[in-house]
Task: inverse folding
């Protein structure tokens, strides 16, 4: 695939891999530097951007939002993959308040399990 096209339109697999990596980096940054550090905030925001990109590109056919009833802390959605990718069923969590901030009400409805 042409490199420019791949950058502009990454595959679902590539986005999931990036989301998982950035989520891990965010957690490490929080442990090392605290939740309010610039690196922690940047990592968290990048994860959210990648998740939104995944949803806007591939929902609801390949990924959808489902409220995670097991989530500890604040209420969150799981980005559920319709097919397992890299041994993963989910592309991490997205707090519901963040989803409501970055997605329109129409997108939220469209991205929930159909």
Result:
């Amino acid at each position: 695939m042409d490199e420019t096209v791949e950058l502009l339109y990454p595959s679902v697999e590539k986005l999931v891999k990036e989301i998982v990596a950035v989520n891990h980096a965010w957690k490490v940054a929080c442990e090392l530097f605290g939740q309010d550090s610039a690196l922690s905030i940047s990592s968290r925001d990048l994860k959210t951007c990648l998740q939104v990109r995944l949803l806007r590109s591939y929902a609801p056919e390949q990924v959808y939002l489902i409220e995670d009833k097991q989530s500890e802390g604040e209420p969150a959605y799981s980005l559920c993959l319709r097919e397992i990718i890299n041994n993963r069923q989910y592309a991490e969590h997205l707090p519901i308040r963040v989803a409501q901030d970055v997605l329109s009400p129409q997108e939220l409805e469209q991205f929930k399990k159909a």
